[in-house]
Amino acid sequence: MNEEKKIPYKIYLEEDEMPKQWYNVRADMKNKPAPLLHPQTFKPVTLEDLSEVFCEELAKQELDETTPYIDIPQEIQDFYKMYRPSPLVRAYCLEKALDTPAKIYYKFEGNNTSGSHKLNSAIAQAYYAKQQGLKGVTTETGAGQWGTALSMACAYFGLDCEVFMVKCSYEQKPFRREVMRTYGANVTPSPSMETAVGRKINEEFPGTSGSLGCAISEAVEAAASKEGYRYVLGSVLSQVLLHQTVIGLETKAALDKYDIKPDIIIGCAGGGSNLGGLISPFVGEMLRGEADYQIIAVEPKSCPSLTRGKYAYDYCDTGKVCPLQKMYTLGNGFIPSASHAGGLRYHGMSATLSQLYDDGYIQATSVEQTSVFAAAQQFAKVEGILPAPESSHAIRVAIDEAMKCKETGEEKTIVFGLTGTGYFDMVSYKRFNDGEMGDYIPTEEDLAKGFASLPYIE
Ligand SMILES: *Cc1c(COP(=O)(O)O)cnc(C)c1O
Hints:
Blueprint: H1 2-5, E1 10-11, E2 21-23, H2 47-53, H3 56-63, E3 69-71, H4 74-83, E4 88-90, H5 92-98, E5 103-108, H6 119-131, E6 136-141, H7 145-157, E7 160-166, H8 167-172, H9 174-182, E8 186-190, H10 196-204, H11 212-224, E9 229-231, H12 238-257, E10 264-268, H13 273-287, E11 294-300, H14 305-308, E12 310-315, E13 324-329, H15 351-358, E14 363-367, H16 369-383, H17 389-408, E15 413-418, H18 426-433, H19 444-451
Parallel strand pairs: 5-15, 6-7, 6-9, 7-8, 10-11, 10-15, 11-14
Antiparallel strand pairs: 1-4, 2-3, 4-5, 12-13
Helix pairs in contact: 2-3, 4-6, 6-7, 7-9, 10-11, 12-13, 16-17
């Protein structure tokens, strides 16, 4: 009890304790993620193939499955120092409100203007683009966090930034758009008439409000058609997961400082980058047989790629211009219902996480959005942070696990990733507060339609 009192509400790291290298968990995996396949030839992609789409250094990171530690360039370390380390917070107030013997910690990534963890990878991707002498980058954004993060990173390095924003978000979140424009980005609603793929989708589905997969296709085409531009992506890819390991490395360093060993680690899973980043160092210990943890990925019931998807090769985008990846997927043609957690509406999942899940290192669960918002509200009232709907998926399960401890009397230590703040999600919060939020769970028939879009490979 005495010892426990010494643990502060917020555990910070000193500058010299911050990570100087990212950790590439693939190096410790016996079963590596399956190779990416070229979208036309279906052969494993080469560095040359990938370098046409991505910056060269990032293409190298994407294909590197043997180097365990990769140096974080000094300029990126310096940028990180502006908003990192992010605090690891002991949720004393939440524990008290729940009257649970569980010890709850959360790693809060919302302390920057993008309001999420996405800046950790955006700054790295912009850095490598600048190093390569590129003029600019193109990307897609769904909920807007990634587009904002990338706009900030591009502004810092003086790069041009073109963002294709899913049309429904573009219309629903005008303030997100203005933040991006303030940082100098050019924001286009997707599907647009500016790309061949956008025109085709507009013709096939008139009046469509867009999707992430479609915006990705547009951004890839825009990059390919302009000299000195490359495409960058904010989740799903192994390079993004690598950059996000700064979250897990800091978390582990902070816990180690106080000899705390977590029992359960929880994160929300959209494309898998924050969860992958948070758990990588811990999974590394599991892979090397040094420790054991219960790891839980939380996804929305409306877009359940791990819990109800198939482990198969699929396109990462609707336009089928990106490489194929073997992953848990609902099919590139799956159209999720209008879930409010925009950042979790992706049909697939990181290849690394998919493999770890298939091998039994991580568990997955899915939750309904009304229960997610109830958890968000409960958390906001006692911990003082208004969480993003995406992050609140992790809060939901952290609370559920803490309540289980209350029943059994177990003093488990729970760590969860609080990926961001929800200030731009007030339309969703309003629906919740007005009692107008529903829970659409896809039927087997809905899922069958998505699976029908899977390419047949092998
Ligand atoms: C984008 C986003 C997510 C989901 O993306 P992952 O790649 O799965 O981490 C979760 N939370 C917030 C706040 C986001 O912006």
